[in-house]
Amino acid sequence: MALSWRSWLANEGSKHLFLFFWLSLNVWLFGKTFLLYNQGLQYYYLHQMLGLGLCISRASASVLNLNCCLVLLPMCRVLLAFLRGSQKVASKKTRRLIDKSKTFHVTCGVTICIFSVLHVAAHLVNALNFSENYNEEFVTLNAANYRGEDPRKLLFATVPGLTGVIMVLVLFLMCTASTYAIRVSNYDIFWYTHNLFFVFYMLLMLHVSGGVLKYQTNLEEHPPGCFNPNKTLRQNLTVPKAFEELFPDYTTEPFPEDPPVPEPFVQNSFMRVCSEEPKFQSHFPETWFWISGPLCLYCVERLYRYIRSNKPVTITSVISHPSNVLEVRMVKDDFEARPGQYVILHCPRVSALESHPFTLTMCPTDTKATFGVHLKVVGDWTERFRDLLLLHSNQDTEILPIFQQRRYPKLYVDGPFGSPFEESLNYEVSLCVAGGIGVTPFASVLNTLLDGWKCYKLRRLYFIWVCRDIESFRWFADLLCMLHNKLWQENRPDYINIQLYLSQTDGIQKIIGEKYQALNSRLLIGRPRWKLLFDDIAKCNRRKTIGVFCCGPNKISKILHKLSNSSNSYGTRFEYNKESFS
Protein backbone atom coordinates (compact mmCIF):
# COMPACT_ATOMS: atom_id res chain seq x y z
CA MET A 1 0.00 0.00 0.00
CA ALA A 2 1.65 3.21 -1.17
CA LEU A 3 1.95 6.05 1.30
CA SER A 4 0.65 9.44 0.23
CA TRP A 5 2.87 12.06 1.81
CA ARG A 6 0.23 14.69 1.28
CA SER A 7 -2.33 12.62 3.16
CA TRP A 8 0.25 11.73 5.80
CA LEU A 9 1.02 15.42 6.32
CA ALA A 10 -2.67 16.23 6.61
CA ASN A 11 -3.44 13.39 9.04
CA GLU A 12 -0.31 12.68 11.03
CA GLY A 13 2.42 14.97 9.73
CA SER A 14 1.25 18.07 11.58
CA LYS A 15 1.04 16.14 14.85
CA HIS A 16 4.47 14.55 14.40
CA LEU A 17 6.05 17.86 13.41
CA PHE A 18 4.55 19.50 16.45
CA LEU A 19 5.77 16.72 18.75
CA PHE A 20 9.24 17.00 17.18
CA PHE A 21 9.18 20.75 17.77
CA TRP A 22 8.06 20.23 21.37
CA LEU A 23 10.82 17.69 22.03
CA SER A 24 13.40 20.01 20.47
CA LEU A 25 12.18 22.89 22.60
CA ASN A 26 12.55 20.86 25.80
CA VAL A 27 16.03 19.65 24.84
CA TRP A 28 17.11 23.19 23.92
CA LEU A 29 15.79 24.57 27.21
CA PHE A 30 17.55 21.81 29.15
CA GLY A 31 20.86 22.45 27.38
CA LYS A 32 20.67 26.23 27.71
CA THR A 33 19.98 26.06 31.45
CA PHE A 34 22.68 23.41 31.92
CA LEU A 35 25.30 25.69 30.31
CA LEU A 36 24.12 28.67 32.36
CA TYR A 37 24.73 26.89 35.65
CA ASN A 38 27.86 25.20 34.40
CA GLN A 39 29.57 28.33 33.08
CA GLY A 40 27.81 31.20 34.83
CA LEU A 41 30.14 33.14 37.16
CA GLN A 42 27.33 33.79 39.65
CA TYR A 43 27.15 30.03 40.28
CA TYR A 44 30.92 29.47 40.49
CA TYR A 45 31.15 28.71 44.21
CA LEU A 46 27.93 26.67 44.24
CA HIS A 47 29.18 24.66 41.27
CA GLN A 48 32.46 24.01 43.07
CA MET A 49 30.44 22.50 45.92
CA LEU A 50 27.81 20.50 43.99
CA GLY A 51 29.34 19.78 40.58
CA LEU A 52 27.12 18.47 37.77
CA GLY A 53 24.30 17.77 40.22
CA LEU A 54 23.61 21.52 40.27
CA CYS A 55 23.48 21.80 36.48
CA ILE A 56 21.24 18.75 35.96
CA SER A 57 18.83 19.66 38.76
CA ARG A 58 18.37 23.23 37.50
CA ALA A 59 18.17 22.21 33.83
CA SER A 60 15.51 19.60 34.55
CA ALA A 61 13.67 22.11 36.76
CA SER A 62 13.41 24.55 33.83
CA VAL A 63 11.85 21.84 31.66
CA LEU A 64 9.46 20.93 34.48
CA ASN A 65 8.44 24.58 34.80
CA LEU A 66 7.54 24.74 31.12
CA ASN A 67 5.55 21.52 31.11
CA CYS A 68 3.78 22.17 34.42
CA CYS A 69 2.81 25.51 32.93
CA LEU A 70 1.30 24.10 29.74
CA VAL A 71 -0.12 20.76 30.91
CA LEU A 72 -3.21 22.54 32.26
CA LEU A 73 -4.07 24.43 29.06
CA PRO A 74 -5.44 21.39 27.15
CA MET A 75 -7.81 20.83 30.08
CA CYS A 76 -9.35 24.31 29.68
CA ARG A 77 -12.31 22.88 27.78
CA VAL A 78 -14.32 26.09 27.63
CA LEU A 79 -11.40 27.94 26.08
CA LEU A 80 -10.85 25.21 23.48
CA ALA A 81 -14.56 25.08 22.65
CA PHE A 82 -14.57 28.86 22.22
CA LEU A 83 -11.57 28.79 19.90
CA ARG A 84 -13.03 25.96 17.86
CA GLY A 85 -16.42 27.60 17.51
CA SER A 86 -15.20 31.16 16.90
CA GLN A 87 -14.11 32.65 13.63
CA LYS A 88 -10.72 33.51 15.12
CA VAL A 89 -9.46 30.05 14.15
CA ALA A 90 -10.50 29.94 10.53
CA SER A 91 -7.95 27.37 9.42
CA LYS A 92 -9.24 23.81 9.42
CA LYS A 93 -5.72 22.50 10.08
CA THR A 94 -5.42 24.69 13.17
CA ARG A 95 -8.77 23.49 14.45
CA ARG A 96 -7.63 19.90 13.92
CA LEU A 97 -4.56 20.66 16.04
CA ILE A 98 -6.92 21.81 18.79
CA ASP A 99 -8.45 18.33 18.64
CA LYS A 100 -5.01 16.96 19.59
CA SER A 101 -5.20 18.72 22.95
CA LYS A 102 -5.44 15.39 24.78
CA THR A 103 -2.30 14.17 22.99
CA PHE A 104 -0.49 17.33 24.02
CA HIS A 105 -1.67 16.90 27.61
CA VAL A 106 -0.34 13.34 27.69
CA THR A 107 2.94 14.48 26.10
CA CYS A 108 3.43 17.11 28.78
CA GLY A 109 2.58 14.56 31.47
CA VAL A 110 5.12 12.03 30.17
CA THR A 111 7.75 14.79 29.95
CA ILE A 112 7.05 15.76 33.55
CA CYS A 113 7.53 12.16 34.67
CA ILE A 114 10.82 11.72 32.79
CA PHE A 115 12.42 14.95 33.93
CA SER A 116 11.12 14.50 37.48
CA VAL A 117 13.17 11.31 37.72
CA LEU A 118 16.20 13.25 36.49
CA HIS A 119 15.49 16.12 38.89
CA VAL A 120 15.12 13.82 41.90
CA ALA A 121 18.30 11.90 41.09
CA ALA A 122 20.29 15.13 40.76
CA HIS A 123 19.00 16.45 44.09
CA LEU A 124 19.89 13.21 45.84
CA VAL A 125 23.47 13.79 44.67
CA ASN A 126 23.21 17.44 45.76
CA ALA A 127 22.11 16.45 49.26
CA LEU A 128 25.14 14.17 49.57
CA ASN A 129 27.50 16.89 48.25
CA PHE A 130 26.08 19.50 50.61
CA SER A 131 26.96 17.20 53.48
CA GLU A 132 30.42 16.10 52.31
CA ASN A 133 31.57 19.40 50.77
CA TYR A 134 30.50 21.68 53.61
CA ASN A 135 32.26 25.00 53.06
CA GLU A 136 33.29 26.76 56.27
CA GLU A 137 34.48 29.77 54.30
CA PHE A 138 31.04 30.51 52.79
CA VAL A 139 28.60 29.48 55.49
CA THR A 140 25.51 31.05 53.87
CA LEU A 141 26.04 28.95 50.73
CA ASN A 142 25.62 25.68 52.60
CA ALA A 143 22.31 23.87 52.88
CA ALA A 144 23.80 21.53 55.54
CA ASN A 145 24.49 22.79 59.05
CA TYR A 146 27.85 21.07 59.40
CA ARG A 147 30.19 18.75 57.55
CA GLY A 148 29.00 15.13 57.53
CA GLU A 149 25.36 15.93 58.34
CA ASP A 150 23.00 13.10 57.47
CA PRO A 151 21.66 13.85 53.95
CA ARG A 152 18.31 12.39 54.94
CA LYS A 153 17.76 15.43 57.15
CA LEU A 154 17.91 17.62 54.04
CA LEU A 155 15.30 15.40 52.40
CA PHE A 156 12.84 14.97 55.26
CA ALA A 157 13.49 17.87 57.65
CA THR A 158 13.41 20.81 55.23
CA VAL A 159 10.48 22.35 53.34
CA PRO A 160 11.97 21.77 49.86
CA GLY A 161 12.95 18.22 50.70
CA LEU A 162 9.70 17.15 52.35
CA THR A 163 7.47 18.75 49.71
CA GLY A 164 9.60 17.14 47.02
CA VAL A 165 9.14 13.68 48.54
CA ILE A 166 5.36 14.13 48.76
CA MET A 167 5.20 15.44 45.19
CA VAL A 168 7.05 12.36 43.96
CA LEU A 169 4.46 10.14 45.66
CA VAL A 170 1.55 12.15 44.21
CA LEU A 171 3.08 12.09 40.75
CA PHE A 172 3.65 8.34 41.00
CA LEU A 173 -0.03 7.78 41.85
CA MET A 174 -1.20 10.01 39.02
CA CYS A 175 1.07 8.37 36.45
CA THR A 176 0.32 4.76 37.36
CA ALA A 177 -3.42 5.39 37.53
CA SER A 178 -3.31 7.00 34.07
CA THR A 179 -2.25 3.80 32.34
CA TYR A 180 -4.69 2.18 29.93
CA ALA A 181 -5.13 -0.93 32.10
CA ILE A 182 -6.19 1.08 35.16
CA ARG A 183 -8.51 3.37 33.20
CA VAL A 184 -10.30 0.43 31.61
CA SER A 185 -10.54 -1.75 34.72
CA ASN A 186 -11.42 0.98 37.22
CA TYR A 187 -12.03 4.48 35.91
CA ASP A 188 -12.78 5.77 39.42
CA ILE A 189 -9.17 5.25 40.49
CA PHE A 190 -7.97 7.28 37.51
CA TRP A 191 -10.48 10.05 38.16
CA TYR A 192 -9.75 10.45 41.87
CA THR A 193 -5.96 10.25 41.60
CA HIS A 194 -5.87 12.67 38.67
CA ASN A 195 -7.63 15.25 40.79
CA LEU A 196 -4.61 15.24 43.09
CA PHE A 197 -3.07 17.67 40.61
CA PHE A 198 -4.25 20.55 42.82
CA VAL A 199 -2.29 19.12 45.78
CA PHE A 200 0.70 18.73 43.47
CA TYR A 201 0.61 22.38 42.44
CA MET A 202 0.21 23.64 46.00
CA LEU A 203 3.22 21.58 47.07
CA LEU A 204 5.14 22.87 44.06
CA MET A 205 4.52 26.47 45.19
CA LEU A 206 5.96 25.61 48.60
CA HIS A 207 8.77 23.51 47.18
CA VAL A 208 10.39 26.38 45.28
CA SER A 209 10.13 28.83 48.17
CA GLY A 210 12.89 27.16 50.22
CA GLY A 211 15.75 29.06 48.56
CA VAL A 212 18.31 26.26 48.97
CA LEU A 213 20.37 27.06 45.88
CA LYS A 214 21.93 30.52 45.91
CA TYR A 215 23.86 32.67 43.48
CA GLN A 216 26.51 35.37 44.01
CA THR A 217 25.31 38.96 43.74
CA ASN A 218 28.54 41.01 43.94
CA LEU A 219 30.51 39.81 40.93
CA GLU A 220 32.03 43.27 40.35
CA GLU A 221 33.43 43.54 43.86
CA HIS A 222 34.34 39.86 44.16
CA PRO A 223 35.06 38.07 40.88
CA PRO A 224 35.14 34.29 41.44
CA GLY A 225 38.64 33.07 42.30
CA CYS A 226 39.97 36.59 43.01
CA PHE A 227 42.78 37.54 45.41
CA ASN A 228 41.72 39.17 48.68
CA PRO A 229 44.83 40.92 50.08
CA ASN A 230 43.07 42.01 53.25
CA LYS A 231 42.12 38.46 54.13
CA THR A 232 45.49 37.03 53.08
CA LEU A 233 47.48 39.53 55.12
CA ARG A 234 45.37 38.93 58.20
CA GLN A 235 45.88 35.19 57.89
CA ASN A 236 49.67 35.39 57.36
CA LEU A 237 50.51 38.26 59.76
CA THR A 238 52.31 37.21 63.01
CA VAL A 239 51.87 39.61 65.95
CA PRO A 240 54.54 39.65 68.71
CA LYS A 241 53.29 38.35 72.04
CA ALA A 242 54.43 41.45 73.94
CA PHE A 243 52.66 43.68 71.44
CA GLU A 244 49.55 41.59 71.77
CA GLU A 245 49.59 41.97 75.57
CA LEU A 246 49.93 45.77 75.34
CA PHE A 247 47.17 46.01 72.75
CA PRO A 248 44.82 43.12 73.37
CA ASP A 249 42.11 44.51 71.08
CA TYR A 250 44.39 44.97 68.12
CA THR A 251 44.19 41.45 66.80
CA THR A 252 40.40 41.36 66.86
CA GLU A 253 39.97 44.48 64.79
CA PRO A 254 40.02 44.06 61.03
CA PHE A 255 41.93 46.33 58.78
CA PRO A 256 40.00 49.52 58.25
CA GLU A 257 40.34 49.18 54.52
CA ASP A 258 42.21 47.20 51.93
CA PRO A 259 45.87 48.22 51.74
CA PRO A 260 46.91 49.96 48.54
CA VAL A 261 47.90 47.53 45.85
CA PRO A 262 50.37 48.46 43.10
CA GLU A 263 48.70 49.25 39.80
CA PRO A 264 50.59 46.61 37.79
CA PHE A 265 49.37 43.94 40.21
CA VAL A 266 45.76 45.03 39.84
CA GLN A 267 45.98 44.81 36.08
CA ASN A 268 47.55 41.36 36.13
CA SER A 269 45.43 39.19 33.87
CA PHE A 270 46.15 36.08 35.90
CA MET A 271 44.86 37.36 39.23
CA ARG A 272 42.15 39.85 40.03
CA VAL A 273 41.85 41.61 43.36
CA CYS A 274 38.54 41.52 45.21
CA SER A 275 37.45 44.33 47.48
CA GLU A 276 34.94 42.41 49.64
CA GLU A 277 33.68 38.98 50.59
CA PRO A 278 31.19 37.24 48.23
CA LYS A 279 27.52 37.77 48.96
CA PHE A 280 24.92 35.12 48.13
CA GLN A 281 21.18 35.35 47.61
CA SER A 282 18.39 32.91 46.83
CA HIS A 283 16.58 33.14 43.51
CA PHE A 284 13.05 34.47 43.41
CA PRO A 285 10.90 31.37 42.75
CA GLU A 286 10.65 31.38 38.95
CA THR A 287 8.10 28.57 39.07
CA TRP A 288 5.54 31.07 40.34
CA PHE A 289 5.86 33.01 37.09
CA TRP A 290 5.48 29.84 35.03
CA ILE A 291 2.43 28.27 36.66
CA SER A 292 0.51 31.20 38.17
CA GLY A 293 -1.03 32.26 34.84
CA PRO A 294 -2.25 28.84 33.60
CA LEU A 295 -3.30 27.82 37.12
CA CYS A 296 -5.37 31.00 37.55
CA LEU A 297 -6.86 30.53 34.08
CA TYR A 298 -7.83 26.95 34.90
CA CYS A 299 -9.32 27.96 38.26
CA VAL A 300 -11.32 30.79 36.66
CA GLU A 301 -12.65 28.37 34.05
CA ARG A 302 -13.61 25.82 36.67
CA LEU A 303 -15.42 28.56 38.59
CA TYR A 304 -17.22 29.61 35.42
CA ARG A 305 -18.17 26.02 34.69
CA TYR A 306 -19.45 25.59 38.25
CA ILE A 307 -21.64 28.69 37.98
CA ARG A 308 -22.88 27.68 34.53
CA SER A 309 -23.82 24.15 35.62
CA ASN A 310 -25.09 25.06 39.08
CA LYS A 311 -28.74 24.84 38.05
CA PRO A 312 -30.08 21.30 37.51
CA VAL A 313 -31.66 20.36 34.20
CA THR A 314 -35.26 19.22 33.75
CA ILE A 315 -35.43 15.60 32.61
CA THR A 316 -38.34 15.23 30.19
CA SER A 317 -38.12 11.52 29.40
CA VAL A 318 -36.02 8.41 29.95
CA ILE A 319 -35.93 5.58 27.39
CA SER A 320 -34.38 2.18 28.00
CA HIS A 321 -33.09 0.80 24.69
CA PRO A 322 -31.93 -2.75 23.90
CA SER A 323 -28.40 -3.88 24.72
CA ASN A 324 -28.20 -1.89 27.97
CA VAL A 325 -28.42 1.58 26.43
CA LEU A 326 -30.23 4.39 28.23
CA GLU A 327 -31.46 7.58 26.56
CA VAL A 328 -32.04 10.68 28.66
CA ARG A 329 -33.80 13.72 27.22
CA MET A 330 -33.77 17.01 29.06
CA VAL A 331 -34.16 20.77 28.77
CA LYS A 332 -32.17 23.63 30.24
CA ASP A 333 -32.57 27.38 29.99
CA ASP A 334 -30.26 29.14 27.51
CA PHE A 335 -28.52 25.90 26.54
CA GLU A 336 -26.95 25.96 23.08
CA ALA A 337 -24.87 23.28 21.42
CA ARG A 338 -23.50 22.28 18.04
CA PRO A 339 -23.75 18.78 16.56
CA GLY A 340 -20.78 16.65 17.58
CA GLN A 341 -20.23 18.29 20.96
CA TYR A 342 -20.38 16.56 24.33
CA VAL A 343 -21.47 17.40 27.88
CA ILE A 344 -20.42 16.27 31.35
CA LEU A 345 -23.14 14.82 33.57
CA HIS A 346 -23.05 15.01 37.35
CA CYS A 347 -25.64 13.32 39.54
CA PRO A 348 -24.98 13.90 43.28
CA ARG A 349 -27.16 10.94 44.30
CA VAL A 350 -24.94 8.63 42.25
CA SER A 351 -21.63 10.15 43.33
CA ALA A 352 -20.84 13.41 45.10
CA LEU A 353 -17.60 13.94 43.20
CA GLU A 354 -17.71 11.89 40.01
CA SER A 355 -18.86 13.26 36.67
CA HIS A 356 -18.65 11.67 33.21
CA PRO A 357 -18.67 12.95 29.61
CA PHE A 358 -21.32 11.88 27.13
CA THR A 359 -21.78 12.90 23.50
CA LEU A 360 -24.95 14.77 22.64
CA THR A 361 -27.22 12.71 20.39
CA MET A 362 -29.80 15.48 20.10
CA CYS A 363 -29.02 19.20 20.09
CA PRO A 364 -31.46 22.05 20.82
CA THR A 365 -32.67 23.99 17.78
CA ASP A 366 -34.70 27.12 17.13
CA THR A 367 -37.91 25.11 17.24
CA LYS A 368 -37.19 22.75 20.15
CA ALA A 369 -35.20 23.14 23.35
CA THR A 370 -34.80 19.44 24.08
CA PHE A 371 -31.37 17.84 24.01
CA GLY A 372 -30.37 14.30 24.89
CA VAL A 373 -27.66 11.73 25.40
CA HIS A 374 -27.37 7.97 24.99
CA LEU A 375 -25.25 6.13 27.53
CA LYS A 376 -24.28 2.48 27.65
CA VAL A 377 -24.60 0.83 31.07
CA VAL A 378 -21.14 -0.66 31.52
CA GLY A 379 -19.92 0.47 34.96
CA ASP A 380 -20.91 1.22 38.53
CA TRP A 381 -21.77 4.86 37.83
CA THR A 382 -24.03 4.15 34.87
CA GLU A 383 -25.68 1.23 36.68
CA ARG A 384 -26.57 3.38 39.70
CA PHE A 385 -27.70 6.19 37.39
CA ARG A 386 -29.97 3.82 35.46
CA ASP A 387 -31.51 2.41 38.64
CA LEU A 388 -32.34 5.92 39.85
CA LEU A 389 -33.96 6.90 36.55
CA LEU A 390 -35.99 3.80 35.77
CA LEU A 391 -38.86 2.56 37.86
CA HIS A 392 -38.03 -1.04 36.95
CA SER A 393 -34.51 -1.54 35.71
CA ASN A 394 -35.30 -4.96 34.25
CA GLN A 395 -37.79 -3.65 31.70
CA ASP A 396 -36.62 -3.65 28.11
CA THR A 397 -38.26 -0.44 26.97
CA GLU A 398 -39.87 2.23 29.05
CA ILE A 399 -40.78 5.82 28.21
CA LEU A 400 -41.52 7.96 31.22
CA PRO A 401 -42.87 11.43 30.38
CA ILE A 402 -42.27 14.20 32.86
CA PHE A 403 -45.96 14.68 33.63
CA GLN A 404 -46.12 11.25 35.27
CA GLN A 405 -45.66 11.11 39.00
CA ARG A 406 -42.00 10.29 38.89
CA ARG A 407 -39.35 12.26 40.74
CA TYR A 408 -36.07 12.11 38.88
CA PRO A 409 -32.83 12.71 40.75
CA LYS A 410 -31.13 16.07 40.31
CA LEU A 411 -28.89 16.09 37.27
CA TYR A 412 -26.37 18.80 36.45
CA VAL A 413 -24.99 19.36 32.96
CA ASP A 414 -21.63 21.01 32.31
CA GLY A 415 -20.90 22.03 28.77
CA PRO A 416 -21.12 21.78 25.86
CA PHE A 417 -17.52 21.14 24.81
CA GLY A 418 -15.98 20.75 21.38
CA SER A 419 -14.95 17.57 19.59
CA PRO A 420 -13.55 16.61 16.16
CA PHE A 421 -17.02 15.65 14.92
CA GLU A 422 -18.05 19.27 14.63
CA GLU A 423 -16.01 19.30 11.42
CA SER A 424 -18.16 16.62 9.77
CA LEU A 425 -20.52 19.27 8.39
CA ASN A 426 -17.63 21.42 7.12
CA TYR A 427 -16.49 18.98 4.42
CA GLU A 428 -18.18 18.59 1.06
CA VAL A 429 -17.91 14.83 1.53
CA SER A 430 -17.67 13.05 4.89
CA LEU A 431 -17.18 9.42 5.84
CA CYS A 432 -18.55 8.60 9.30
CA VAL A 433 -17.69 5.21 10.77
CA ALA A 434 -19.22 4.06 14.06
CA GLY A 435 -18.67 0.94 16.11
CA GLY A 436 -21.49 0.03 18.49
CA ILE A 437 -22.27 2.83 20.93
CA GLY A 438 -19.72 4.93 19.05
CA VAL A 439 -22.62 6.03 16.87
CA THR A 440 -23.63 8.67 19.41
CA PRO A 441 -21.53 11.57 17.98
CA PHE A 442 -23.07 11.01 14.54
CA ALA A 443 -26.62 10.86 15.91
CA SER A 444 -26.56 14.60 16.62
CA VAL A 445 -25.23 15.20 13.09
CA LEU A 446 -28.06 13.11 11.60
CA ASN A 447 -30.64 14.94 13.74
CA THR A 448 -29.26 18.25 12.52
CA LEU A 449 -29.49 17.16 8.88
CA LEU A 450 -33.07 16.06 9.53
CA ASP A 451 -33.92 19.63 10.54
CA GLY A 452 -32.26 21.00 7.40
CA TRP A 453 -29.17 20.17 5.37
CA LYS A 454 -29.00 22.91 2.75
CA CYS A 455 -27.31 25.47 5.02
CA TYR A 456 -24.22 23.29 5.50
CA LYS A 457 -21.26 22.66 3.23
CA LEU A 458 -21.81 18.89 3.39
CA ARG A 459 -23.23 17.45 0.14
CA ARG A 460 -22.59 13.74 0.56
CA LEU A 461 -22.39 11.61 3.69
CA TYR A 462 -21.18 8.02 3.89
CA PHE A 463 -22.48 6.50 7.12
CA ILE A 464 -21.02 3.12 8.18
CA TRP A 465 -22.30 1.50 11.38
CA VAL A 466 -20.91 -1.82 12.67
CA CYS A 467 -22.72 -3.65 15.51
CA ARG A 468 -22.50 -7.10 17.06
CA ASP A 469 -26.25 -7.70 17.51
CA ILE A 470 -29.27 -6.73 15.44
CA GLU A 471 -31.05 -5.00 18.32
CA SER A 472 -28.37 -2.31 18.58
CA PHE A 473 -29.49 -0.82 15.26
CA ARG A 474 -32.84 0.02 16.81
CA TRP A 475 -31.21 2.75 18.88
CA PHE A 476 -31.38 5.12 15.92
CA ALA A 477 -33.39 3.13 13.35
CA ASP A 478 -36.26 5.63 13.43
CA LEU A 479 -33.87 8.54 12.93
CA LEU A 480 -32.17 6.89 9.96
CA CYS A 481 -35.50 6.03 8.33
CA MET A 482 -36.87 9.56 8.76
CA LEU A 483 -33.72 11.09 7.27
CA HIS A 484 -33.78 8.61 4.39
CA ASN A 485 -37.44 9.37 3.60
CA LYS A 486 -36.89 13.11 3.85
CA LEU A 487 -34.03 13.04 1.34
CA TRP A 488 -36.03 10.89 -1.06
CA GLN A 489 -38.90 13.36 -0.90
CA GLU A 490 -36.47 16.19 -1.68
CA ASN A 491 -35.03 14.25 -4.63
CA ARG A 492 -31.62 13.83 -2.97
CA PRO A 493 -31.38 10.08 -2.32
CA ASP A 494 -27.65 10.22 -3.01
CA TYR A 495 -27.05 12.68 -0.17
CA ILE A 496 -26.53 9.92 2.40
CA ASN A 497 -25.15 6.42 1.82
CA ILE A 498 -26.10 4.16 4.73
CA GLN A 499 -24.33 0.84 5.29
CA LEU A 500 -25.14 -1.26 8.37
CA TYR A 501 -22.89 -4.22 9.19
CA LEU A 502 -23.84 -7.03 11.57
CA SER A 503 -20.53 -8.55 12.63
CA GLN A 504 -21.90 -11.53 14.62
CA THR A 505 -24.92 -13.54 13.53
CA ASP A 506 -26.21 -17.10 13.28
CA GLY A 507 -28.14 -16.46 10.09
CA ILE A 508 -29.96 -13.86 8.03
CA GLN A 509 -31.63 -11.33 10.28
CA LYS A 510 -33.68 -8.19 9.78
CA ILE A 511 -34.55 -5.16 11.83
CA ILE A 512 -38.06 -5.98 12.98
CA GLY A 513 -40.79 -3.65 11.70
CA GLU A 514 -42.27 -2.75 8.34
CA LYS A 515 -41.12 0.83 8.66
CA TYR A 516 -37.49 -0.34 8.67
CA GLN A 517 -37.56 -1.80 5.15
CA ALA A 518 -35.22 0.94 3.92
CA LEU A 519 -32.64 -0.17 6.49
CA ASN A 520 -33.10 -3.90 5.92
CA SER A 521 -31.98 -3.44 2.33
CA ARG A 522 -28.79 -1.80 3.61
CA LEU A 523 -28.03 -4.40 6.28
CA LEU A 524 -24.96 -6.49 5.48
CA ILE A 525 -23.61 -9.54 7.29
CA GLY A 526 -19.96 -9.53 8.30
CA ARG A 527 -17.37 -6.79 8.55
CA PRO A 528 -16.71 -4.01 6.04
CA ARG A 529 -14.01 -4.52 3.42
CA TRP A 530 -12.36 -1.24 4.19
CA LYS A 531 -9.88 -1.14 1.30
CA LEU A 532 -12.62 -1.66 -1.30
CA LEU A 533 -14.82 0.84 0.50
CA PHE A 534 -12.13 3.55 0.40
CA ASP A 535 -11.37 2.82 -3.27
CA ASP A 536 -15.04 3.10 -4.17
CA ILE A 537 -15.44 6.39 -2.29
CA ALA A 538 -12.27 7.79 -3.88
CA LYS A 539 -13.49 6.79 -7.34
CA CYS A 540 -16.86 8.50 -6.84
CA ASN A 541 -15.27 11.68 -5.44
CA ARG A 542 -12.25 12.35 -7.62
CA ARG A 543 -9.82 15.09 -6.55
CA LYS A 544 -11.83 15.97 -3.47
CA THR A 545 -10.90 16.17 0.19
CA ILE A 546 -12.96 13.77 2.29
CA GLY A 547 -13.27 14.03 6.05
CA VAL A 548 -12.99 10.65 7.78
CA PHE A 549 -14.55 10.46 11.24
CA CYS A 550 -14.35 7.41 13.45
CA CYS A 551 -15.72 6.62 16.88
CA GLY A 552 -15.22 3.03 17.83
CA PRO A 553 -12.74 0.33 18.82
CA ASN A 554 -9.04 0.97 18.29
CA LYS A 555 -8.81 -1.86 15.76
CA ILE A 556 -11.17 -0.12 13.36
CA SER A 557 -9.53 3.22 14.07
CA LYS A 558 -6.07 1.96 13.13
CA ILE A 559 -7.32 0.48 9.86
CA LEU A 560 -9.05 3.71 8.84
CA HIS A 561 -6.05 5.72 9.89
CA LYS A 562 -3.74 3.66 7.70
CA LEU A 563 -6.10 3.82 4.72
CA SER A 564 -6.46 7.58 5.10
CA ASN A 565 -2.69 7.92 4.79
CA SER A 566 -2.49 5.70 1.71
CA SER A 567 -2.48 7.06 -1.84
CA ASN A 568 -4.98 6.37 -4.60
CA SER A 569 -5.08 6.88 -8.35
CA TYR A 570 -8.04 9.25 -8.28
CA GLY A 571 -6.39 12.23 -6.59
CA THR A 572 -8.73 11.94 -3.60
CA ARG A 573 -7.38 12.93 -0.21
CA PHE A 574 -8.72 11.61 3.10
CA GLU A 575 -8.34 13.61 6.32
CA TYR A 576 -8.65 11.45 9.38
CA ASN A 577 -10.43 12.45 12.60
CA LYS A 578 -11.01 10.19 15.57
CA GLU A 579 -12.67 9.95 18.95
CA SER A 580 -11.91 6.78 20.88
CA PHE A 581 -13.68 5.21 23.82
CA SER A 582 -12.68 2.41 26.16
Number of strands: 14
Q: What is the helix fraction of residues, given as a range? A: 40-55%
- Number of continuous helical runs: 21
Tell me, briefly, the overall form: elongated
Global structural class:
alpha/beta
Strand content: 5-15%
Q: Estimate the mean pLDDT confidence.
A: 80
List the helices and strands and how they pair.
Blueprint: H1 5-39, H2 44-50, H3 52-70, H4 77-85, H5 92-98, H6 101-132, H7 151-156, H8 159-177, H9 180-185, H10 187-194, H11 197-207, E1 214-216, H12 229-236, H13 241-246, H14 263-266, E2 280-282, H15 286-308, E3 314-321, E4 325-331, E5 342-346, E6 356-362, E7 371-376, H16 380-389, E8 412-417, E9 429-435, H17 440-451, E10 460-467, H18 477-489, E11 496-502, H19 517-520, E12 523-525, H20 530-540, E13 545-552, H21 554-565, E14 573-580
Helix pairs in contact: 1-3, 3-6, 3-15, 6-8, 8-10, 8-11, 17-18
Write a concise keyword list for the protein shown above.
582 residues, alpha/beta, Rossmann fold, 6-stranded parallel beta sheet, disordered N terminus, NADPH oxidase 4
Protein described:
The chain has 582 residues and is α/β, with parallel strands linked by helices. Among the domains are: 23-158 and 210-217 and 281-299, no CATH class; 311-389 and 409-417, Elongation Factor Tu (Ef-tu), domain 3; 422-506 and 516-579, Rossmann fold (3-Layer(aba) Sandwich). The chain contains 21 helices and 14 strands. The longest helix is centred in the N-terminal third of the chain and has 35 residues, at 5-39. It starts with a helix and ends with a strand.
